[in-house]
Amino acid sequence: MNTTRILDGGMSRELLRLGAELKQPEWSALALINAPDIVRRVHQEFIAAGSEVVTTNSYALVPFHIGEDRFQTEGPALIRLAGRLAREAADAVTDRKVLVAGSLPPIFGSYEPQNFQPSRVQDYLEVLVENLSPFVDIWLGETLSLIAEAEAVRKAVATSGKPFWISFTLADDEAAISGGEPKLRSGEKVEDAASWAVSSGAEALLFNCSKPEVMQAAVETAARVFRKMDAHIEIGVYANAFEGETGDAAANEGLHDTRADLNDDAYSRYACSWAEAGATIIGGCCGIGAAHIHRLRKTLLG
């Protein structure tokens, strides 16, 4: 397990914990506008907890959250600010290398594959890539619900000269938790997503923003595909702590309740199962805070 790379956790609830205001529609973008120092503190706290990769707070810097007009007028500056805050926090570390992952979110809404617009997606991804590029080490297309969203990310970063990771969000309804075939929220099979990853040139395939109970099966499926295709692609997981079913609701419609049972000890036990199944990149998503990451690192790396 000593080769595991530790990611950060979820940004939004750590922003709230440290005193930032979050409300819809801006959500975590509001902290960049009103309280950028708190964004920096969240990055610093995750690094102090043991994160080796911090993710830019650019997830909500899309028209879905900040509106079309603001995206066009203020978006580039806010995207650069998100990149700079993460870069400064990473570069302040002197005892180890901390990487910055540039978050490239689902442009037309989380958990909403039906809203994907292939004819428009590059118009928005290009703005994110151009303005984050000076600050990031790797690209992270995250919380993607369908393979076409991942392909759009691949195209957007193709000429950037930097590696990219792709992270899909999984169906996590009762059928999935009970042992059904692992699928993306679009209904596409994880097996097909893994095959796409092999052909895409991605350095890593991850699964995020789904319940921890469904992650192991997805890791096992991806690992099986990669072995069959003799592909050397890392696998990662960063689960959320959402309570109840989320499959019928967009991830960013409001503040979901989080599970009381998913404390740092319980989450680290899930993380051990993912590592044993083949995951080498592990962190947390919504509701997984710095305390979880600290325990996770201690458990996985000693």
TrEMBL record:
Zn(2+) binds at residues 209, 285-286. Binds 1 zinc ion per subunit. InterPro entries: BHMT-like, HCY_dom, HCY_dom_sf. Pfam families: S-methyl_trans (PF02574). It comes from the Bacteria. Keywords: Metal-binding, Methyltransferase, Transferase, Zinc. Residues 1-300 form the Hcy-binding domain. GO terms for biological process: methionine biosynthetic process; methylation. PROSITE patterns: HCY (PS50970). Its cofactor is Zn(2+). One of its GO terms (molecular function) is methyltransferase activity. This is S-methylmethionine-dependent homocysteine/selenocysteine methylase. It comes from Rhizobium esperanzae.
